[in-house]
Specification:
372 residues, alpha/beta, Rossmann fold, 2 domains, six-stranded parallel sheet, 15 helices, 13 strands, 41% helix, elongated
Length: 372
């Protein structure tokens, strides 16, 4: 039986979140039925070496021509199509985060089916027509949460809901490494609240900082770890806020980390305070990783997080509402470590039943088969 060749496309591996999700799926596909390839714009990014070492064929060229002027765009799409033809995919699966539609034209010109994963809640504004065209050109669309389906594709026959999955064994809770606490300037007996996120304004991390500061006098044995790349403009603003509040000793930044499980192993509570604006969330894998690590989780009531916490309504708080987050956090921070571990195990069970990588991959395979 001829294998179905899937060409996964992504602009870059500069930020490992989407790239890691792509690679996880590509590596887990049934190799008797599917043959994965990867296409990206360049070789930069810390995660690219991991991709290159995976054994999956990787192609590097510009596959996203500019939309204007139209004649040049069509000519460049034709040129890209010739390169895609040499790879000869049955399906091109785009992980592009934006509203670009020229790769769809190129793939279709090359004779491949073209699908994409809708990874965020962007739709309106200047990109609205581009999103509509991208969706029109697609042979199939993977949506990551129910709000995407209801708001953007309520009547579409092209879509399939496939939430993100997590490699359960990789994030399983294990004995904490003491050196991590040394690195994070944290005492051995301190209790850890953690946020793991891509440091961009929509994540609302300043809400968590302000809430933690307000609770700190009642819970002096707790510290807050912020795990993520903090070298951008938003990260610098967060550092400035912490310095202004004089909380440098209690709110500690880890910097960019390729593996977060070593940090999760030290924590008891995970918080994701995403704002209800802009791109919001698709299906945030950081929260799933925390669940797989048996952490008690709190998240703001926004698309994506609402789906993941649908069975735990008391663990949702109103976005940007420090009072609501304060109440929810207070109720958890006053609990003993033993009690929090018991609650954390219910989140682990939820991740195992609903959000395993195996389930995500099976759904992708089913979708691919429906397309070809």
């Amino acid at each position: 039986m001829k294998k179905i060749r899937i060409l996964f496309t992504i602009p870059n591996f500069d930020t490992a979140g989407s790239g890691r999700a792509l690679l996880n799926i590509a590596l887990a596909l049934d190799t008797t039925r599917f043959e994965p390839h990867i296409l990206c714009l360049h070789e930069r990014g810390d995660f690219f070496k991991v991709v290159k070492d995976s054994g999956i064929p990787v192609h590097i060229f510009n596959y996203v021509p500019k939309e204007r002027p139209v004649f040049s765009m069509l000519l460049n799409c034709f040129k890209v199509a010739q390169k895609i033809k040499k790879i000869n995919p049955d399906i091109a699966h785009s992980f592009h985060y934006g509203a670009n539609y020229t790769e769809a034209l190129s793939a279709r010109m090359a004779g491949a089916k073209w699908i994409f994963t809708k990874k965020n809640m962007n739709w309106g504004g200047k990109s609205k027509n581009a999103w509509k065209l991208r969706s029109f050109l697609a042979n199939g669309i993977i949506v990551q949460n129910t709000d995407m389906q209801n708001e953007f594709y309520a009547t579409s026959k092209k879509t399939m809901l496939i939430p993100r999955g997590v490699i359960l064994d990789k994030f399983k809770s294990s004995e904490p490494i003491p050196q991590i606490r040394t690195q994070m300037r944290t005492q051995a007996d301190a209790r850890v609240l953690i946020c793991v996120a891509n440091f961009v304004p929509v994540k609302g991390i300043e809400i968590l900082i302000n809430t933690f500061v307000g609770l700190s006098s009642r819970f002096p044995d707790w510290v807050l770890w912020l795990v993520g790349d903090d070298k951008n403009e938003y990260g610098i603003k967060l550092h400035e806020l912490v310095a202004k509040l004089k909380f440098d000793s209690k709110i500690i930044f880890s910097g960019k980390q390729m593996s977060v499980v070593d940090f999760l192993n030290h924590a008891e509570i995970f918080v994701l305070p995403t704002l209800n604006e802009g791109r919001k969330e698709g299906s945030p894998v950081a929260m799933l990783e925390a669940m797989a690590n048996s952490k008690v989780v709190l998240g703001s009531r926004v698309p994506g997080i609402k789906d993941q916490l649908k069975n735990f309504p008391n663990h949702l708080f109103t976005p940007k509402d420090e009072n609501d987050l304060t109440e929810k956090l207070h109720n958890l921070m006053k609990m003993t470590e033993k009690d929090l571990r018991e609650v954390g195990n219910t989140f682990l069970k939820h991740a195992v039943e609903e959000y395993s990588l195996k389930k995500e991959v099976v759904r992708h395979e089913q979708f691919y088969l429906s397309i070809v």
